[in-house]
Every structure is written in structure tokens, then in C-alpha cells.
Amino acid sequence: MNARIKQIVDEVKDIKSFRLKPEQKLSYVAGQWMYVRLSTDLRHHFTISASPSEEFLQFTTKFRAESLYKQALWKKKEGDEVEVNGPFGSFVLDEKDTTPRLFIAGGIGITPFRSMIKYATDRQINLPITLLYSGKNTGEMAFISEFNVQSSMFSVWVIETVKEGRIDAKKIQDLVPDWRDRTWWVCGPPPMVEAMVELAQKMGVDANKLRSEEFTGY
Ligand SMILES: Cc1cc2nc3c(=O)[nH]c(=O)nc-3n(C[C@H](O)[C@H](O)[C@H](O)COP(=O)(O)OP(=O)(O)OC[C@H]3O[C@@H](n4cnc5c(N)ncnc54)[C@H](O)[C@@H]3O)c2cc1C
Fold this sequence. Notes:
Blueprint: E1 2-12, E2 15-22, E3 33-39, E4 42-47, E5 57-62, H1 68-74, E6 81-88, E7 101-106, H2 111-122, E8 129-135, E9 154-160, H3 161-164, H4 169-175, E10 183-188, H5 190-202, E11 210-214
Parallel strand pairs: 7-8, 7-10, 8-9, 10-11
Antiparallel strand pairs: 1-2, 1-6, 2-5, 3-4, 3-6
Bound molecules: flavin-adenine dinucleotide.
Flavin-adenine dinucleotide binds at residues 33, 44-47, 59-62, 64, 67, 69-70, 89, 108, 111, 213, 215-218.
């Protein structure tokens, strides 16, 4: 169905969120994704970075100069239309499962976690979440200011890889002492997800406590 771009938000350098108003309401669960088609040849998957508790539908993405898709998207203006199709995906927040979570995001892989954290906060769901959010530097990482609240339910650790290196076993053990009791949720570009899944396996995390979503195309 068609969706009108209501607002384009500059999140950080080279990352924008596109807030949409679809022709009909698109019901989804926090963490799901949709297709966004700009023309016959230009279609990509995008996580819905909004939360079902919000009025608008939204996706968030990073500019890449070599990408025809991103070139076309960056030319779009408020009031233009795109086509959306969805929702899809099972990397989602199940409200009934209150097992503590460890979310590990690499760069733009923050989008499903932004949706889940916003939803859990807005609906006051009793769900302990620790977020490890890694990226080159904070100037290139979306939504950081939103996560600036530590509470008994939510804690966030931002890891700037240029200064601190990548997430490894020591960082996880130091920052998340109860990592064994949490289900692990990993999202980001494929090499990052593969590295984190391998790390989890080496640390002895059970396969049934480990979930991941790869953003193919990065
Ligand atoms: C479930 C899911 C959710 C996603 N959510 C987001 C999101 O929230 N935000 C976001 O920015 N991106 C998301 N992505 C990735 C997004 O769909 C694009 O692939 C990404 O933005 C790169 O697009 P591009 O136009 O910059 O690169 P492109 O120009 O499309 O491609 C870059 C490189 O990747 C290769 N490539 C492209 N697509 C694939 C593919 N499917 N498999 C293997 N190689 C491929 C190309 O050959 C090229 O070498 C998601 C992907 C998936 C699968």
C-alpha cells in the first residue's frame, strides 16, 4: 500500500528516520520489518523503528553514496509517497516472556531495539533489559539521547569502537555480570552478528537463549 512521508528526521550524521502515514493502519509487533519500495527496481527491507505505542510508522537508515536506493531515498521530500508491504519477521518483543534480555546492537542494528525499548517503556512492561550498543563513535549512532535513562528495568552501555574496540567476552562480563541469566538478542550487519553469535557460543550461551537478526546489504 502507499504511504505518505509525513516527516524526515535527521538523527545523526548520514542517518535519517522517515515517518510515514500509510493509507491504512499497519498493525505490527515491536521488532518487525517491512518492505519499502521507491520504484519498480528499488525495494529494501527495513525494520520498523517506531513502536506500536506511537502514532506513526517509521524506518531509519544510513546513507551510502554508492547505493542507488539511498540516492533515491535521500531525494525524497515530506509529502512524497513510497510503497510499504508488511509487517514480517519474528525478531520481536513477546510481552508475556519476562526473561531478562541482553540486547546487543551494532550500528544501524539498533532499530528493532529502539522499537522494543520504546514499547516496553511506554507500556510499562516489567521486563529487565540491558542494551550494549556499539558503533564507531557516538556522532554516528542514532537514538542515543533516547536511551539516556538508567532505571531498575533498563540499563544501556554505549561502546565506541574507535576508542574502546569491539565487544568481547571481557566487556560483556564486566558490564553485564548476570549475562548468563539473560536471553541474548543480537542485531546488526552480518559480520557483527556472526562475531557476536560466535562469542555467545564460546561463552557457553545455550542456542535457545540466543536470537539474532542480520541486516543483509551492509
Ligand atoms: C530483516 C532486515 C531488516 C533490515 N532493517 C534495516 C534497518 O532498519 N535500517 C537499515 O538501514 N537497513 C536495514 N536492513 C538492510 C537494508 O535492507 C539494506 O540492505 C541496507 O540498508 C543497505 O542498502 P544499500 O542500498 O545501502 O546497499 P545496496 O546498494 O543495496 O547493497 C550494498 C551491498 O550489499 C549487497 N547486498 C544488497 N542486498 C543484499 C542481500 N539481501 N543479501 C546479500 N547481499 C546484499 C550488494 O550486492 C552490495 O554489495 C535490513 C535488512 C533486513 C534483512
